[in-house]
Amino acid sequence: MALSNANCLLCGAPLVYADAAQEMTCAICGKTETGHCACADDHYICDACHREKGVAFILDACRASISTNPIELAQQIMTDRTIYPNGPEHHTLVGAVLLTCYQNAGGAIDLDQALDELRRRSLQVPGGTCGFWGICGAAASAGQFYAIISGSTPLAAEPWTATARLTANIMGRLADVGGPRCCKRNGFIAIEESVRYVAATTGIAMKLPERTLCTFMGGNDECLKRECPFFPKHSANTNS
């Protein structure tokens, strides 16, 4: 069993991750399913309940946005109380901000249709895949984004290859930074890699800030601090 300082949404107790899935009952909706994570007081919250309000907020914010900078849009969305420090709502957020800014930068897609498809795909990615599957949900979300804009399917040739190359690039950089997981850090990396890759492969130039700085470390006791590429180097919060 591994303890995590990301607290229970109901009682604030630390979360406990099991190596093997166990039968658990959601403390919010009452659904029984197999899961890996409950808090120290045995509260289990299913992915659907964890991300329901956050995903709705993400999609509404994206449909209303005129931004071409997906990092800035993601950071604005992350400040909402429905987006927790870590959680599967980020598996929708990454692809959604990329689709939005891609269209706003001149990409030829039907944004409403693309966001609906991204939602369907992203909701199939459970929480904890970074540790349990070896594929981060942020990378999967970026892959879903690129698959949608390129028309990739399991039978495609070049779009299949191009989509796989993007997710490989993202996972390589995530592995270089290392764990433990942080949905904010992993999301920023997935977005940055996607923006650069899209510019090189499609010519659509979304914007990035001169330097991406994280302001969410206070909600993550597992923050890598100075080892994170997005940690403000002059922050007073520098204890390792």
Order of helices and strands, N to C?
EEEHHHHHHHH
What fraction of the residues are assigned to beta strands by DSSP? 5-15%
Q: Which oligomerization state do the chains in this entry correspond to?
A: single chain
What is the total domain count?
2
Could you tell me the mean pLDDT?
91
Measured between the Cα atoms of the first and last residue, the distance is: 23 Å
Radius of gyration: 18 Å
* Largest sheet: spatial strand order: 1-2-3
- Largest pleated sheet: 3 strands, antiparallel
Low-confidence stretches: 1-5, 235-240
Q: What is the number of beta strands?
A: 3
Highlighted features:
disordered N terminus, disordered C terminus, 3-stranded antiparallel sheet, mainly alpha, 2 domains, 240 residues
Written overview of the protein:
Helix content is 47%, strand content 11%. The protein is mainly α. A hairpin with a 6-residue loop joins β1 and β2. The longest helix is centred in the C-terminal third of the chain and has 20 residues.
List the helices and strands and how they pair.
Elements: E1 2-7, E2 14-25, E3 32-39, H1 47-64, H2 70-78, H3 90-104, H4 111-122, H5 129-132, H6 137-150, H7 158-177, H8 183-202
Antiparallel strand pairs: 1-2, 2-3
What is the gist of this entry?
With 240 residues, the chain is mostly helical. The protein is built from eight helices and three strands; from the N terminus they run E-E-E-H-H-H-H-H-H-H-H.
